[in-house]
Amino acid sequence: MKYPYKTRVGGATVTVFVPYDCGNHCPFCINKGEYADLTGFSVDAICKSITQMDALTPACDFVFTGGEPLANLPSLQRMLDCVPATHKIYINTTLPVSEHCSQEDLLAFAARNRGKITCINVSRHLQHYVQESNDELLSRLPVPFRVNCVLYRDYPAERLIPYLERFRKIPGAAVQFRFDYTATTPENLYRRSGDRILDDLSRVARYTGLEGCRMRCGFHFDYRGMALTYHKTLPYSTMVERDPVTGVTYAILYDILIKQNGELHADWDGTPLDPEAYRAAVFEPYDLRWLEKIA
Ligand code: SF4
Fold first, then answer.
1. Residue-level pLDDT at 295
2. What gap in Å lies between CA 105 and CA 243, rounded to an integer?
3. What is the pLDDT of residue 272?
4. Which residue's CA is minimally distant from atom 7 of ligand 1?
5. Residues of the chain with pLDDT under 50
6. 127 Cβ closer than 6 Å to some ligand 1 atom
7. Is 273 helix (H, G, I), strand (E, B) or coil?
8. Cβ(214) to ligand 1 under 6 A?
9. Ligand 1, atom 1, residue with closest C-alpha
10. % of the chain surpassing 90 pLDDT
């Protein structure tokens, strides 16, 4: 059944899967399999789709993810250069340093794109899932950054405080802990009782409030002056809902994907986006709001 699209003011976030891989094998990764065969992957096709999405929603946010966006700086530069300044750009990365790309190369890239990049989200987990570069690199980043940490299954809670102390020393650091989103359901999205992560964070940090929307939420904490969030999101990006006023049923889009071959998808399960239907999308105010705020 096809429904007309509805999305938030400015448009759904566009997540771009870069056409090259990372060197890691995180146990919770659901993207890795797509990088096993690079046939059809194309920077040109992705650039075309970026331009198409810019024409449809000139103020949407773009997120570059992978794979590893910073593993191929010339290709990432080409893609970033297709995104006009009306958009915010986020980059999900491990900040990989290698014999082909030094710390100074990464810093020079970030400095060159300072005016484009809104935030770099750096993966650093409690367990050693990703190849990590030196923490000193974080302190030298010329753009805002956030540390992302997936608390996966039976994570070692006793490492939380040493982990937080590690980043608290770095000026400008904020940490986002993430629930395994493949395990998130509409029933447990906001549930507090029995949520181990919430319990563990409440023991080590001061709870400051909750913000959320239909699709995702964030429990906020303060750890000795450093901002923490515990983020949960549903494992899909489209919700079907009937508008109680008009009676029209809409497919409400939160994320649009540009795949490694440039294809546009409306959900993580391979559902294609219909760009012509999206051109006629109805916009609503973003439903993300503070639900609780503690002074
Ligand atoms: S670094 Fe990211 S893309 Fe690579 S395996 Fe880990 S989660 Fe997957």
1. 76
2. 50
3. 97
4. 29
5. none
6. no
7. coil
8. no
9. 24
10. 93
pLDDT at 243: 94
- pLDDT of amino acid 116: 97
Sheet holding 175-178, edge to edge: 264-265, 255-258, 13-17, 62-65, 89-93, 117-123, 145-150, 175-178, 226-233, 216-223, 206-212, 289-293
For residue 44, what are the CA distances in angstroms to 18, 76, 78, 81, 82?
Answer: 11, 11, 9, 12, 10
pLDDT for res 21: 95
Measured from the CA of 129, which atom of ligand 1 is nearest?
6
Question: Which two three-digit tokens encode residue 186?
Answer: 């509409």
Copy the structure tokens of residue 169. Answer: 């020393």
* Atom 3 (ligand 1) nearest CA: 67
Question: What is the Å distance from ligand 1's center to 245 Cα?
Answer: 42
Residue 4 contacts residue 242 (beta carbons within 8 Å): no
pLDDT at 128: 87
How many other CB atoms sit within 10 Å of the CB of residue 90? 20
The C-alpha torsion from 34 through 37 and 40 to 43, rounded to 10°, is 70
Q: Are 292 and 16 in contact (CB under 8 A)?
A: no
Number of folded domains in the chain?
A: 1
pLDDT at 40: 97
3-class DSSP state for residue 11? coil
Which residues, other chains included, contact 244 with Cβ-Cβ below 8 Å and sequence gap of 6+?
none
Q: Ligand 1: does its nearest atom lie under 6 Å from the Cβ of 25?
A: yes
Condensed to tens digits (0 to 9), the pLDDT of residues 187-240 reads 999 999 999 999 999 999 999 999 999 999 999 999 999 999 999 999 999 999
Q: 23 lies in which domain range?
A: 5-293
**CATH assignment of the domain containing 247:** 3.20.20
What residue owns the CA closest to ligand 1's atom 8? 29
Q: What is the pLDDT of residue 1?
A: 73
The Cα 172–Cα 153 span in angstroms is 29
